[in-house]
Amino acid sequence: MAPPAPITALQGVSVTFGGRPLFDGLDLSIVRGERACLVGRNGSGKSTLMKVLAGMIQPDGGTVFVQPGARIAYLPQEPDFTGCATVHDYVVQGLPADEIDESHRVDAVLDKLQVDGSLDPNTLSGGESRRAALARTLVGNPDVMLLDEPTNHLDLPTIEWLEEELLSYRGGLLLISHDRAFLNRLARRTLWLDRGAIRSTDRPFAEFEAWQAEVFETEEAAAHKLDRKIESEMKWLREGISARRTRNMGRVRNLLDLRGERAEQIKGGQQAKLAIAEAERGGRLVIEATGISKGFDTPDGRKTIVRNFSTRILRGDRVGLIGPNGAGKSTLLKMLTGQLQPDEGTVKLGTNLDAAYFDQRREGLNPEDTIRRVLCPFGGDAVVVNGQSRHVAGYMKDFLFDTRQLDSPVKALSGGERNRLLLARLFAKPSNLMILDEPTNDLDMDTLDLLEDVLGDYQGTLLLVSHDRDFLDRLVTATIALEGDGTATEYAGGYSDYLVQRPARAPAAPAPAKPKPAAAPAAAAKPRGKLSYKDQRELDELPARMDRLGTEIAKLETALADPDLFTRDAARFQKTSEQLHARQAELAAAEERWLELEALREELEGGRA
C-alpha cells in the first residue's frame, strides 16, 4: 500500500541565521492523522522550523509544499494581539476567510477554554493569553496544527482538556513541548532536530532517551578519533544520559522511602508531634501550619482561597503544590513561608532557615557580565558549594557549559543557557529551604533534566508549585492539592499518587471534551499485600542480570575503543556495534522493569498511601 500523501512537506530546506546555517538540506513531511513531536537542544532551530512550515519564514533554499486548500494553524510561544480590541477579535482571525461569519464557533471554543471574549487581550495573564491563542488555533478546524510549547502557563485541568482534544483530532499534529507527560500521552512519532539534520523514528516520545543513546553510541563508535568536534559538542549530553540512568535506581528507591515516611506522618496526626518534638529544637521542623485560612474581597463577594488547612513540613521533605490557576497556590506558598499572614490559624517556622527562591522571570542577569563574573561576583576562580571550594570551570561543567564559555558574556548565551546559569548561581548560594514557584514554565527540556538532577540530590527542604506532572512525580514526597473551592488537602507522593488517592469530584473547568471516569477514592486503593511469586523472583534476579549486562557492555566498549578495529576488520566492528546497542537496550529495559517492580512492591506492602 502506498504511503499517505503529505499535507505539508519540506524538501531540501536550508535556513541561515546570523551567518551560520541553522539547518541545511532538511526534509520533513506531515500526513493526516499523524501525531509527532519535534525535540532537540535549545537553540537547535525547532521554533524556526515550525515557522517555515507555517509559512512565516521563507527558507534560504529548498521548497515548502502544502496541499492545495489545506489549512495550517500555528500556535506561537508568544501570541501577537496587535490590532485586536478584544479576545473575540483575536480568535476570529483563526477562522478561514470563507467562514468568517461563523463567529458562533468562536464563542463555543472560548466557552470551552473559559476565556472572556470581551476582554482586552493586552490585559490577560500568561495562562489566559495561552488559552486565547489555543482558541484561535482550534477554531478553524485546520488540517495541520503546529503547536510550540502549548502547555506553557496552563494549569493541569486545562492541560488534561487539551490532551483530550488533541487525542480526538484527525489532522496532522506537530508538537514542541518540555512537558514529558504531555508528549508521552500524545506523540506517536519522534522527530529529533540535531546539528542541522532531522532524525526520525516511529517510536513514541517515551522511548526517546533510549533511541538518542543508541544514536550517540553508533556515532561515537563509527567516528572514533575522527570527529573530535562531535565529541566536544555532545559529550555533556551523553554523560548526562548515562549519569541519570546510573543515579535513577538509587534515587527512585530513596524517593519511595521518603514517600512512605511522609504517608505515615500524614496518617499519624497528633502522634507525630510527640515523636519528633525533641528533634525540632535542632532544626527538624521547617514549617508547621495549624488551621490556616485566607480569603479576599472581590466585586462578587468574599472569595475563600484556603480554609482550615494544617500541615507539618520537616527537614528534607519535598512538597508539591498543585491546582487550577487562581486556586491560591502562590497565596498558600506565601503563607507557609511567612511572606503573608493568614486570616485565621498560625504558621510556625523552624529555626535557622536559609531560603532560596527560583523564578527565572524575576532573576536578572547583567548581559555584559561573563559566566565567570556571574558565578564569582567578588573575583577569583573559586565557587563555594555546600561548604566546599570548587574551581568555577569545574562547577560550570555540572551545569552543561563548555569551559571555553567561561569568559563569554551573558548576552551571547541562548535562553536555555541563561536559565542554566541562573540555576548554577542559585545552587552556589547556601540554603536549606528551596522555594520554586512554577519553575518549569519556559524552561527547555535540557534545563529541566538538569533542574531535576540537582533537586534530586538537594539535601534541604523543597516547596514546589508546578503544573508539570512528570516533574512532580519524579521529585516530590507529598502533594498539596488546592481544588479552587477553598479546599486544600495533602497526599503522600506525586501527581500520579494524588490521582489515585483523591476523592471523586466534579471535573474542574475547562471540562474535558469527553467525560472521564472519576478517579478512584483513596479507600479504593489496593490493599496491602506482596508481589506474586513470579514478580518477586524476577525482582530478585534483575540486579544480577543488570550487573552481567553492565560487564558485557564494558567489554564491548573496550573492543570498540581499538582505533584500528574498523580498518582491520569492518565486519567485526559492525557486529560488535550491534551487540553493544542490543545490550544497552536490554540494560535500559531491565532498569525500567526493576523500577516498576520495586515501586509495585512498595505500594503493595503499604509503603505508599
Descriptive tags:
609 residues; alpha/beta; Rossmann fold; Helix Hairpins; six-stranded mixed beta sheet; 21% strand
Overall outline: globular
How many separate domains make up the residues? 3
CATH superfamily caption of the largest domain: P-loop containing nucleotide triphosphate hydrolases
Instruction: Provide a count of the helices.
Output: 19
Provide the low-confidence segments as ranges: 227-234, 236-242, 269-282, 511-528
Q: Please write the CATH class name of the largest domain.
A: Alpha Beta
Major sheet details? 6 strands, mixed
Question: How many beta strands in the DSSP annotation?
Answer: 20
Tell me, rounded to a whole number, the average pLDDT: 80
Distance between the termini: 51 Å
Helix content: 40-55%
Beta fraction of the residues? 15-25%
Q: Briefly, what is this?
A:
The protein is 41% helix and 21% strand. It is an alpha/beta fold and 609 residues long. The protein folds into 3 domains: 8-215, Rossmann fold (3-Layer(aba) Sandwich), CATH 3.40.50; 253-354 and 431-505 and 513-522, P-loop containing nucleotide triphosphate hydrolases (Rossmann fold, 3-Layer(aba) Sandwich), CATH 3.40.50; 526-609, Valyl-tRNA synthetase, C-terminal domain (Helix Hairpins, Orthogonal Bundle).
What is the fold's blueprint, element by element?
Layout (H helix, E strand, L loop, with lengths): L7 E10 L2 E11 L4 E5 L6 H8 L7 E6 L5 E4 L11 H6 L11 H10 L12 H14 L4 E5 L7 H12 L4 E5 L3 H7 L2 E6 L2 E5 L6 H15 L5 H41 L1 H11 L4 E14 L2 E14 L3 E5 L6 H8 L7 E6 L5 E4 L12 H5 L6 E4 L2 E4 H7 L16 H14 L4 E5 L7 H12 L4 E5 L3 H7 L2 E5 L5 E5 L2 H7 L31 H28 L4 H4 L1 H35 L5
Parallel strand pairs: 3-7, 3-8, 5-6, 6-7, 12-18, 12-19, 14-17, 17-18
Antiparallel strand pairs: 1-2, 1-4, 8-9, 10-11, 10-13, 15-16, 19-20
Helix pairs in contact: 3-4, 7-8, 7-19, 8-19, 13-14, 17-19
